[in-house]
Here is the input.
Amino acid sequence: MIEKVTVRLTEEGKFRAIDGPQCDEMNPKELLLHAAAQCSGRTAMHLMQKMHMKPKGLEISYSGDLNTDEVLPESMFRSFHVVYNVECATGDDQEKAGRAIALTHDKYCGLTQMLRRIAPVSHETAIVSTEPEPAR
Here is the structure.
């Protein structure tokens, strides 16, 4: 069974769960995924700020494959998968965002590092720019 939590950056700079239950309605497995998504989001934002850029949008989905067909207290995760979706204002910011996401996932997000000790953590990243293409 796959459990999934998606968080999105708000205008206030906070990450809120979307397309699913809010924290007070989540089961413990979803709360773990939510915590990991929050950690990844906050880490990525910190790194992007250090790079003097702010994304127009950032959405992180954390999913985990459980070893049971339903969520049980004894269910354990077999693997995790993270999807990072970043919207940038300019093409230059795309490169910075890519670097920040890579550093977040591979090195600086402590929860992602801890989850790697439980099971494999794969990821994919999509970074788009809303800057119009130059006229030719």
In short: Residues 4 and 63 are 4 Å apart (CA to CA). The beta strands are 2-9, 15-18, 57-66, 77-88, 121-129.
